[in-house]
Amino acid sequence: MDGVAARSRRVLSLCGRLMNEVVSFFVFSLLDLLDAALCLAFKVSDFLAEAEWKPCYCSASSAREAIHGAAGGEILVSERGESNIVCLSSGGGSGNVNKIRLDQVSDTLYTRPSKLQEVSESIKRLYEKRGKERAAKAATMFAVDSAVVEMLQGRMVRKQPHPIRRWSDCDCEDCTSWASRRRRSLFVKVAGAKGMSEKPREDVLFIHGFISSSAFWTETLFPNFSDSAKSAYRLFAVDLLGFGRSPKPSDSLYTLREHLDMIEQSVLEPYKVKSFHIVAHSLGCILALALAVKHPGSVKSLTLLAPPYYPVPKGVQAAQYVMRRVAPRRVWPLITFGASLACWYEHITRAWCLLACKNHRFWELLTKIITRNRIRTFLFEGFFCHTHNAAWHTLHNVICGMAGKLDGYLDTVRDHLRCDVTIFHGKDDKLIPVECSYSVQRRVCRAHVKVIENKDHITIVVGRQRAFARELEEIWRKSSG
């Protein structure tokens, strides 16, 4: 009887997976068509609202030649290993005048085949053997989308982040106040031992995850730290570039370098932070690792929550591999469907931002009236307060684009940093599997992984904030001792 039951479960599971595949194919094929239609609709709307055609990532253009910009400068694109290097120069001749390097632009921004194309390619690979010459040619090919080129051309002319918002972005005070400030810096919430004159024993930097904000920490952990911790530690929670109340420049590519530079300019430099602990969630874990590698002697402890680390097999393009792991284009489970929409469909996600983010004040008010629950309200606030440009580029250039560099970051943490590494992961996390944390531990053997039962990507903190605050205090105490 047990054997029959086991076979029945296997058959039902197989049928479920097959149904998921079939339904996903048709659903995402329709979404491909919808995204193409929305592309045309937004181009017309952009022209009517802003009197110019705005670039998008629907088609890639070759960048083997220098592309001449409107300012008489040029944009040179090359490839070095895993990193795409973009150089801007405003002078002629050798091109070394006023050169700016912008790297870490992920090809997943503009190389996202439709569902039908992807299936066709899979079928081709079954019947076709690729020669070494063809494979080598594919490996050396590098393209950059015209949208990247136009953004960089604009930056060459302006030299500063573009403060003018898009018509489809929110125009409320919280979302636009940064444009009127003389100094471009992130929104930073400081708690604990405040003040530039005080000398707290230690500093702690909190980095939130994707489409979130500093409220993820300030509304949960900060009120639950003990009095002794509040007097001993200076706590910094930032809104990342493009999120919450931080600047949202419309011409930024939101690369890892831009995010790190803003953290340094907004926290480490003005507050004279010399050594610090880092607590990071999801996307923030990638920034935390990069920051630790950049400041190896300054980091006292590294606490990562649900790190999105997917070891990339040899010979596989890292960014494309991670995009398909994070967003496999399946309708079930629902969180996978949501991630797939966010990764694959530029114009559908822009339509969502137009509906939700531009009108976030209405949705926040409605949420407060319906739930009367502060926890849910601040989560909605973090979810809505961003621009499509920021979310789209951060997702591709940081989560996908940095996939090829994470092994090196983790090796540096293992070999050159002495700090303690602690990883928390919810066992029920459907967005980033627990295996990601164990993969980090296999790379950094001293890392300690704590899997929390009955918790997911959000409830790893929300709902257990008091217990987690005590766990963090213990980590910091041991690291200091």
From TrEMBL:
Molecular function (Gene Ontology), one example: hydrolase activity
Gene Ontology terms describing biological process: cutin biosynthetic process
Gene3D superfamilies in the cross-refs: alpha/beta hydrolase
Superkingdom of origin organism: Eukaryota
InterPro entries referenced in this protein's UniProt entry, alphabetically: AB_hydrolase_1, AB_hydrolase_fold
SUPFAM superfamilies documented for this protein: alpha/beta-Hydrolases (SSF53474)
AB hydrolase-1 domain: residues covered: 204-460
Pfam families named in the record: Abhydrolase_1 (PF00561)
Protein name listed in UniProt: AB hydrolase-1 domain-containing protein
